[in-house]
Amino acid sequence: MMDIPLLLFKTLLLRPYVFVFLAAALFCAHRLIGWKRTGLFLGITWFVAFVCEWSSTRNGIPFGWYHYTGFTVGQELYLSNVPFMDSLSFSFLLYASYCLALFFLLPKQAPNGARCCQPALGFPLEARTSWPVFGLTVLFFAFIDMVIDPVALRGSRWFLGQIYFYPDPGIHFGVTIANYVGWAVVGAISLAMYFPLDRHLPTPANKPSRSVTGDVLLGCGLYYGVLLFNLGVTFWIGELLLGMTGTLIYIPVTALFLLRLFDRFPYPGPLQSDTGS
To answer: Which of 30, 33, 121, 129 could be stapled to 37 by a disulfide with Cβ–Cβ 3.0 to 4.6 Å?
Structure first.
């Protein structure tokens, strides 16, 4: 126990980009959903991710079989055999995916109070905890791992290090399809635990009575920040085919995002003047 603060500090020095993304998620999330919901959302996701990683490295469920090398033991914090920063990453990635789904599916307010030509999005409880938001969040969550995991598997060629491997390499640049299914499982379980809590908690004290467009866009910015970071590393290590594949995955998503951003996208429901419960 005496070593945990020191190892956490070493983890911060070794993986500063992870903690930058986490800090960004905390900032974005508290503005949109308040501190209590932020703690629940990120805490639940981290716990579910850790349990699933602990399970997969022992019985192959839900990510399929893979193993951590222990290459960085003593250089960063591990919980059991799982690097702390690895399961921590799931939490801010799911929040960023949630914001991207919200941006596509939240209803507009009336009158339009957003800046320029952006849609003024409401934040009703029934919309933000709906099945379409649930499904699209899980999809975006699994999608971004199709960029992250293949480059992470090549960690020996950049500053991540070779922290894990698959005994039987998969068909997607060495990553197994089971891994992406596992990410979807983590996202689905985490949201299935968080959404009922969101429905029963009091309205966030800092919930704006105006449009939440700006706060949702901050989370979308986090999503694209992580995406561009990983694509940048992918091209930097010379994996051109991998980088182009990841880029092509996101061209249609980004095109639809821009249509929504400039208020040229169909809306999922009638205009709403209430910002939610």
So the answer is: 33
DSSP secondary-structure letter at 204? P
If residue 164 lies in a helix (H) or strand (E), which one and from where to where? strand 164-165
| Amino acid identity for residue 267 in this structure | Y
Distance CA 78, CA 109 (A): 46
Tell me whether residue 88 is in a domain. yes
Give the integer Cα–Cα distance in Å for 148 and 72: 19
260 contact partners, CB below 8 Å, separation of at least 6: 103, 104, 119
Q: What is the pLDDT of residues 111-155, one digit of tens each?
A: 544 455 677 888 999 999 999 999 999 999 999 999 999 999 999
CB atoms within 10 A of CB 130: 18
CB neighbours (10 Å) of residue 67? 13
Helices 4-14 & 16-59, crossing angle to 10 degrees?
110
What are the tokens at 251?
Answer: 């061209």
Does residue 269 fall inside a structural domain?
A: no
Tokens representing 156 are 């020996």
Q: What is the pTM of this model?
A: 0.92
Q: Is residue 273 part of a domain?
A: no
In-domain check, residue 277: no
Range of the domain at 227: 4-261
